[in-house]
Amino acid sequence: MLLGSIEAGGTKFVCAVGDENFQVINRIEFKTTTPAETLQKAVDYFKQFTELKAISISSFGPIEIIKTSAKYGYITDTPKINWSNTDFLGFMKNNFNMPILWTTDVNGSAYGEYVTANEKIKSLTYYTIGTGVGAGTLINGKFLGETGHPEIGHIRLKRHPDDLNFPGICPYHGDCLEGLVCGPTFQARTGHRGEDVPLSDHVWDIMAYYVAQAALQTTLSILPEKIVFGGGVVSEQFLDKVRYEYNQLMNDYIDVGDLENYITMPTVKNNGSATVGNFALARRKLE
Amino acid sequence: MLLGSIEAGGTKFVCAVGDENFQVINRIEFKTTTPAETLQKAVDYFKQFTELKAISISSFGPIEIIKTSAKYGYITDTPKINWSNTDFLGFMKNNFNMPILWTTDVNGSAYGEYVTANEKIKSLTYYTIGTGVGAGTLINGKFLGETGHPEIGHIRLKRHPDDLNFPGICPYHGDCLEGLVCGPTFQARTGHRGEDVPLSDHVWDIMAYYVAQAALQTTLSILPEKIVFGGGVVSEQFLDKVRYEYNQLMNDYIDVGDLENYITMPTVKNNGSATVGNFALARRKLE
Ligand SMILES: Nc1ncnc2c1ncn2[C@@H]1O[C@H](COP(=O)(O)OP(=O)(O)O)[C@@H](O)[C@H]1O
Ligand SMILES: Nc1ncnc2c1ncn2[C@@H]1O[C@H](COP(=O)(O)OP(=O)(O)O)[C@@H](O)[C@H]1O
Ligand SMILES: [Zn+2]
Ligand SMILES: [Zn+2]
């Protein structure tokens, strides 16, 4: 039996097939172009695998996840050109007669971390800090967000005193969390790509102050057992700064135990959490 | 059959007994003094009712709600003098041989709003803005917060440009949500009690800006079907200001439908949500 994973990102798609132990057997990446072209590539890829029994899609958004909605399975109102109002799930269902699960990219990653921890983590929030910022939360194996998927990337934060003149780059809100800490903010603040800004640069302290507030809001509003940070911007050294700022902000108000275990990088390496999560969700869909 | 409700506040206790339809049959209020005196008063009150079958306590906090903890049922580390480390639930259990439910004050209120809506609301967040600020969230009839109760009162916010010099009054964090909008901030900002500050005063716009951010964070991180605001500071006119600021902040990013239905006062009048909630929780505990 094979399980299929589609990680649909705004920049690239990663499709993979895996076995019942969620091990990757085959994997392909391609650029996100038009919906017609991109989704057809995904279909062509999976058609090769006759043993495929179920697929899970974790997609960039906003997506419609209310099952009773006429737009269930759609990418809805996205700023990404051509992709608004795309019936992603419908296209897949027309091509594959098997269970297909539909969720957000960050939910897929959160689920991957959950199964990798042998489902022993009752509640977990997974943040990605990359081209955009998003988070998915699992509580007792269920995704948080009854009527849609939460968009915690757009919360407002207390501004860092050394960053008051930076307006932020979210097209909707300016200085929301995403507008202050997504990867492209490095270019906007320093003129350099994040990859090229050394961790000794003060901009990383400012980043850590905001990301720590994201963790803090999550602790205070959801109190998950663990907060995982993935995405291109995140490194273990950066998370050390985040933990430091988090401690300052929390000021001993809520004890979450050892911060090294509470605020962590993903257990699955190389941004592979969503693939593992998709395999597990696909299998669950079969049960 | 009678059901018992204890609403344990830092200022006063409200004890009540109700029938199976959650109608109040008898009710008493008394000041919160020492734990020994206050809890004994609660015990003496309920001892009068021989038909009492279950009690639900919704308490000020922080409280321990992890059942496996040695401190389960305690008020833990509170700034309120004499009350740190009080075995509230234990004291009640020693006096009553019946099911006793233990939760937070805001959870009790959230549950009251949930049952009053005939459990038709899948998810709901109840905020209180009074002497302190707190919130409880119910999702499919279950409280959010696996390992403890969330403390959303202490999230950080984007400061209002006309309020930058106000340091906030939270003893732990200064300008967290509670430090910026709890009732006593009126005295701190204006020298007058909130009751005496007219809604035309600009301080109410500042208040609304922050409370709208609280609603916004909740929408973005939890996406409940409804956000209810109770507590002494809240009025329908104030919520109009909150809705206005919420709209500005959200900037059409997530559509929650009619804001008049999404951000509301409690359905149960006169801060009675927690009493109804306790009756319902007590009955549920019997099942
Ligand atoms: N080491 C790094 N430090 C800071 N930013 C980085 C680093 N590596 C990548 N980035 C930034 O992360 C973003 C890409 O994030 P990533 O998670 O890899 O992709 P995506 O979010 O598009 O799936 C880009 O803006 C990139 O500049
Ligand atoms: N109309 C009002 N406008 C503003 N603040 C008010 C108003 N009425 C009461 N308050 C303030 O609300 C707080 C009391 O809140 P309340 O919810 O009644 O009690 P508690 O939180 O102690 O249970 C006090 O700080 C009081 O000054
Ligand atoms: Zn935004
Ligand atoms: Zn605080």
UniProtKB/TrEMBL annotation, chains A, B:
<dbReference type="GO" id="GO:0008865">
    <property type="term" value="F:fructokinase activity"/>
</dbReference>
<protein>
    <recommendedName>
        <fullName>Fructokinase</fullName>
        <ecNumber>2.7.1.4</ecNumber>
    </recommendedName>
</protein>
<keyword id="KW-0460">Magnesium</keyword>
<keyword id="KW-0479">Metal-binding</keyword>
<dbReference type="InterPro" id="IPR000600">
    <property type="entry name" value="ROK"/>
</dbReference>
<comment type="similarity">
    <text>Belongs to the ROK (NagC/XylR) family.</text>
</comment>
<dbReference type="GO" id="GO:0046872">
    <property type="term" value="F:metal ion binding"/>
</dbReference>
<keyword id="KW-0808">Transferase</keyword>
<dbReference type="InterPro" id="IPR054618">
    <property type="entry name" value="ScrK"/>
</dbReference>
<keyword id="KW-0067">ATP-binding</keyword>
<dbReference type="GO" id="GO:0005524">
    <property type="term" value="F:ATP binding"/>
</dbReference>
<dbReference type="InterPro" id="IPR051804">
    <property type="entry name" value="Carb_Metab_Reg_Kinase/Isom"/>
</dbReference>
<dbReference type="Pfam" id="PF00480">
    <property type="entry name" value="ROK"/>
</dbReference>
<keyword id="KW-0547">Nucleotide-binding</keyword>
<keyword id="KW-0119">Carbohydrate metabolism</keyword>
<dbReference type="InterPro" id="IPR043129">
    <property type="entry name" value="ATPase_NBD"/>
</dbReference>
<keyword id="KW-0418">Kinase</keyword>
<keyword id="KW-0862">Zinc</keyword>
